[in-house]
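Researcher: We're teaching a course module on how sequence relates to structure. For the next exercise, students receive a sequence and then see the predicted structure as C-alpha cells, so they can try to spot secondary structure elements on their own. Here is the exercise chain.
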Amino acid sequence: MYQYIHETPKASQNAPVKKHYDVVVVGGGMSGVCAAIASARQGADTALIQARSVYGGNASSETRMHISGASCHWGKKDAAETGILMELQLENKYLNPNHNFSIWDGVLWSKVKQTKNLDSYMNTSMDRVLSDGKKIQSIQCYQTTTETRYEFTASIYLDATGDGTLGYFSGAEYRVGREAAELFREKDAPPESDGATMGNTIYFCARDTGAPVPFIKPNWALSLDESWFKHRYHGDIVVYHDADDVVVLGPDEDYSDHEDQLVEKYDVQSGYWWIELGGDWDDIIKSHEDIRYELYRIVYGVWDHIKNGGDHGADNYELVWVGNVAGTRESRRLMGDYVLTENDIIENRVHEDGVAYGGWPMDEHTAGGFHAKGQIPSRVRSFDGFYSIPYGCYCSKNISNLMMAGRDISATKLAMGSTRVMATCAVGGQAAGTAAAMAVKQGCMPKEFGEKHIQKLRQELLKNDCYIMGLKNTDEKDLARTASVTASSQKPGWEASKIINGITRNRKGEINCWSSDGIGQDGECLVLTFDAACPVSQVRLTFDPNLSQERCISVSKAFIDKEPVGVDKELVKDYKVTLYHRGTITYEKTISNNYQRLNIINLADSVMADQAEIRIFSTNGLEDVHIFEVRIYGA
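Model: And here is the predicted structure for the students to work with:
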C-alpha cells in the first residue's frame, strides 16, 4: 500500500520569478514575432510571451491560415511585404517547398530562439496587469509546462495579443464593433454604432486517397442540406478572369458578385473561411470556447454534406485534419494617438509619420457567419493602390508605456477589415518593435519618441528592408549614396545607378532596380567608387525576389499550384564582395547558395576602401542579375 503525501510549498516557492526587460512583447502571432525580433535586433533586451506551444498565431500549424497582405493574392503588383516577414517566408521557401506546417512552425521557433537579446516564454499566459490607468507597472504570467509564475517589468510593453488583452487589463481605451458613420465620417459605416464584429473560423484539410472513402457523421454534428450553402461555394477555391488578368479570390474573399466570370473550380482540399461564427454573439472573447464547439459541429456537418449530401466530387477524399484553435478575425481595437479610417484607405493617404502600409480590401464579414443562412457571407470593398499606417496607430492613447501591433491597432471597424491581415500586421509589428527599442535607448516613452524622432525611425525601418510609402534612403552614414556606379552590363531603364536611388522596389511602373543584360562567363559586376578612401565595416545588398509573387505557406491547392516551388528564381545565388584601397584588395568574401533578399555582410574589423565590387556568378534561375540597392557603412 502506497501513501501519497502532498506538502504545501513554502511561501517563497509561490512567489513569482521576477524578470526585467527593456521591451516585453505579449503575443506570439506574426505581429508579435516580428516585433520581438525587431526590438532585439536594435539591441534592446526583449521578452516574447506566447500562450501557445507554437508561434505564428493564425498562420501556425494550429490554425493553418495563409498569410495575406497588400498584394491581394496576385491582384496588385510589386506589393509584397518585405523586412522580417519576407526573411521568414524566404527561409521557409528554401527549407519547406512542400508547404509542411510543422516545418514552418520550426522556421518561426528557430528564428526567435536564435535571435540575440531575445528571451522567449512559450506556453505562458498573461493573467494579471498592474496599472494605474496611465502606465503599466508590471504584468504577471503563468507558464503551464513548468508550473512557474513570472512577474515581468519593462520600460515599454507591446500588445500583440490580437484581442488587445494587455491593453484591456491595463485600462487602455478600446473599441468593439461598428462605429456610426458620423463619428469618423465614413460613408460605408452604419447610421448607428453596434457591437457587430467578424467571426471566428476553424479550418479543415482533406486529401484525395485515389479510392472511395466513406464518412459517418458523428451524432453531435449538424445535418445540413443544400439550402445552407447559398453564396457559400464548397469546392476549394474559385478562379475568375477580369479584363486584364487572372484574379484569384481566395479564402478571405467573396465570389458571389463574380459568378458570370467563373472559369474553374478546384477539388475539395481545404476548409472554408465562411465556416464562421461569433460576430453577433454578446461577447466574442468571453464566448470563445462556446463558439469553438459550435464550429466543430458545423465543420463536421459541412463535411458530411460534401461527402453524403449529393455529388460534390469528393468520393475519394478523406478528412485528415480539423483545427483545434479557431482563427479570430476581430475583437477589441486599442485606441491610439491616431485612428485609421476608411477615408485613409480609399484615398491612399501617405502620412508623414507612416511606418507601415496596407492594400488588402476592406473586408467585412456578416456578423452571423454561417448561421446567417442565405446571406452573402462577406462584403469586400476593394480599392486601387495602397495606404500608409501612421505611427500613432501603434501607440496607446492613454497608457504611456504601451504600444500595440496586429489586428488590435488603432483603427475603425471598416479600416480594421483591411489592416487585420497577417502580412500587414507583421510589418506593423516590425515597426512597433523597432520603435519600442529605439525609444528605450532614447530614454523616452513611445509618444514622445514619435514626436522627436519619427524620421529617424522611418529611415531605420527603410534600412532594414521595410517599405515606407513616399520615403527614400537619405541616410548620411551610407557611403554608397555618393559613390559613382558602373556595371559590366545593364538593360535600358534598369541602369546601375538605380542601386543608389534610395528606393528598393518598383513603384507604379517605375523601375528602381539594376538588371544586367544576361550573365557573362565571368559573372556580372557592379563597381562603386568613393570620392575618398574611408573605413568600411558593413555591406548591405538588397536583391529582387519578385515582389509581385506570393510566397505564403497554405493548405489551398489553388495557391500551392500557382506559387512557384522553391527559392525565387530572381534572387542572386552566388556572388563575391571585394573591397579595394588604391588598387589593393583589403577585404574579400564569397557568398554561396543565397536565398534571401536582404544580405548583410559584417566585417570583423573595418578596412580602408575607395572602391567596392560586387561580382555575381549566378542567380536562382533568372537569366539576368537584379539588385535593388547597395549600402555601405563605415566603422
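Model: If you want an answer key for the exercise: The two ends are 73 Å apart (CA to CA). The chain has three domains: 13-176+333-463, 200-328, 479-633.
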